[in-house]
Amino acid sequence: MKLFCRLYHELDSTTRTTDKVRALERYFRAAPPADAAWAISFLIGRRLPRGVTTTQLRQYAAEFANLPTWIVEECYEAVGDLAETLALLLPEPSESESIPLHVLIEERLLPLPRLGDEERRKILETTWRQLSGPERFLWHKLLTGGFRVGAGRTLTARALAAVAGVDPAVMSDRLMGPWQPTPTDYQRLLRGDAVEGDVGKPYPFLLAYPVEGPLETLGEIQDWQIEWKWDGIRAQIVNRGSKVLIWSRGEELISDQFPEVGQAALALSNSVVLDGEILIWGQHGPRPFSDLQKRLNRKRVTARDVRDYPAVFVAYDLLELDSQDRREEPLKRRRQLLEQLLSGWQVSGVLRLSPILELHQWSDVAVHHTLARECGAEGLMLKHRGSPYGVGRIKGVWWKWKVDPYYVDAVLINAQAGHGRRAGLYTDYTFAVWHEGRLIPIAKAYSGLTDDEIREVDAFIKENTVERFGPVRAVRPELVFELAFEGIQRSARHKSGIALRFPRMNRWRRDKRPEEADHLDRLRALLPPETDSR
Amino acid sequence: MPNLLEYTPSGWYCPIGDFFIDPHAPVERAVVTHGHTDHACPGSRHYLAAASSVLVLKERLGPDADIEALPFGQSMTMNGVNVSLHPAGHVLGSAQVRIEYRGEVWVVSGDYKTVAEPSCEPFEPVRCHVFVTESTFALPVYRWQPQSEIMAEIHAWWRANQDQGRTSVLFAYALGKTQRLLAALDPEAGPICVHGAARVFLPAYEAAGVRFPPIHSAEAAEVRRFAGRALVLAPYSSFRTPWFHALGPTSTASASGWMQIRGHRRRQGVDRGFVLSDHADWEGLLSAIRATGAERIGVTHGHTEVLCRWLREQGTDCWQASLVRRWSEDVG
Ligand SMILES: [Zn+2]
Ligand SMILES: [Zn+2]
After folding, report:
1. What is the ipTM of this complex?
2. pTM for this predicted structure
3. Distance from CA of B112 to the nearest CA of A (A)
4. What's the CATH number where B122 sits?
5. CATH number, domain with residue A223
6. What domain range includes position B246?
7. Largest alpha-carbon pair distance within chain B?
8. What is the mean pLDDT of residues A269-295?
9. Residues of chain B with C-beta less than 8 angstroms from the C-beta of A477
């Protein structure tokens, strides 16, 4: 645990990517495989079932620290994080035991849900006696399923790649899919041996950058494949046998939510992996994202759901065919193969091709851009025809050009209670984006969420208030929302130096972590050129 | 007989002696506990302060302020009220104010820390009937490590930055914290640069016999001369100013009690937080209160509600003396 704790501390005390990768590398070189396997699992965001409720944890900790619950609550109010509060309140450890991470997880955490209250309390108390303050903080985070660290999959893959002496893209591949946090699978990750269950594994997604500057700077238009940018769920269909798996970008299996897509993909040739977008398609084209969310949130999808919210998969890339990884081939070739594969298919079917827009001048692209909304798209994609399918966000390969209004992914930082129908609920929010490592407020917006979401956000705010200024609560910067806005101006009155026109909440980006929110520079880049004002 | 002290909109007032303690507004006569802006308000006619704080106060109240110096432990009389000052251990010359009238003794703590270190006179418990205490860090989550451990962390951070060719910028309050750090920094570790905002207070400290290592100015050009080796002490308000950006590659840190809380550190946007406070921690407050032997405790300046409730539950007579909480940078 000491090593893992140091790693966490190092990751937490820098925003510099190179420092983080270096810290991760150091960790993986030093940690025993049994611990390292768990560390990877946590770093890439896998969660364990909760071993104890926060209420119980609070109560046991208060009794162990010999403090009344009211003062624990006061402390929580001031600290804003339960795991941290309890770590700070507990008395100094009485034993200086060093417990390996895997022992802590396998022998103490995993059994907790099956135990009776008294046994559970005993395990917690024993562990508290043995762990130092920073270790307890992590232990509590793991216990409550709240472990997060600003490293993530990409950096973990980079560090592991360095340790294994392979390309980061190769390591990203290996980290996908169902490996277990065991020493054996850890060694396999490093060596690259197949892991059980690998057969259904997706490839890491290639991600697009927003366009920068005039389109002309991209060069010859015929080098670019231009498509609509769909506002759906990015997904990969993996068919390597009798079973079809559908993976979302967040590496979650969503096959059960979209049975008709899986059914349709069964008819594809054996061993094919497609990249594309899942959308709910109505008579007049794609339906709003909120309809898609309805399908996504269903635990069990009924025939009626399929009828009312019919899903389609719009395919735009082919990553594997006939058991061969095709990602190194240029997009032009992959597209040919994709078109051949889907040639016999109906354009209106559940599986369909994302059409290529045949445009011959950049000015036509700009015109199409303005039409995107009408065509049910949220903009254009520009993909370099000669490019291989890389891993993650690579500049110059895929560009996305979203339509107006502008969007920004911002972090909720302050909240104030609403009035009237929303009295007592926190519905007036302040949002911030990143600038030089800190969050700078950019807009206030009333909640544009559904009633259920409002309640959920309200509960989050009450639980995560870090400071109060009169009626305003500063909350832990955790939730990311997509704001839409109509325009942007310079503003000397605002700390950010910009003012957004008609900012409104577009949707809750549950798939985004605060570190993934936008940066101020991106907004500033949208500013009209500075003119001499009188 | 009226209370020896009462809380008024302008601050603590002694009706019998006709003077204020740390008034927030200009008054006729003010006793000032120390030079932080939330305690030393300019504009009053006459000031009384500890002798070793006078030079510091001149920086804050203006060179023409009428400040009467009273050495620690000596007393004087104001309208029959006996007034003396006793070290509070918070910053150089910081005082607790003891007032006595017809055998009744009140003590107003000002800001205090109970741990002794070389940059100021150590806190001295004073027996009294009524003790008015601050409560900046009155929550059991605030538990300070010994200064030696924190200084070891700071030096390790400084060394690690040197290995990576980064200049270390440590943000600390200009009055008190900076001098405390300076007196504890190892000059062998590398060049030390001090921002002008803190340098103005150095003569006062040196006059009181506090020893500092050799110091360089923190002008950007000077810092760049030692790029990748220097440790720069500067107030947090200088973060991300043009001056800061001119320093080249840096690693940043803050030294304050608030750094105990991860959220505070993250909001500050610094790489590291060192938990070093010029205030008492939870146990420090409780032990200081016990040491006074006071029958009644007035709680002010911070988590008043929490400390009051706790003391009451322990059977101590207690009241929340002020609800006004004026934030300033130094409350850490
Ligand atoms: Zn102070
Ligand atoms: Zn103060």
Report:
1. 0.92
2. 0.70
3. 21
4. 3.60.15.10
5. 3.30.470.30
6. 147-274
7. 67
8. 85
9. 266
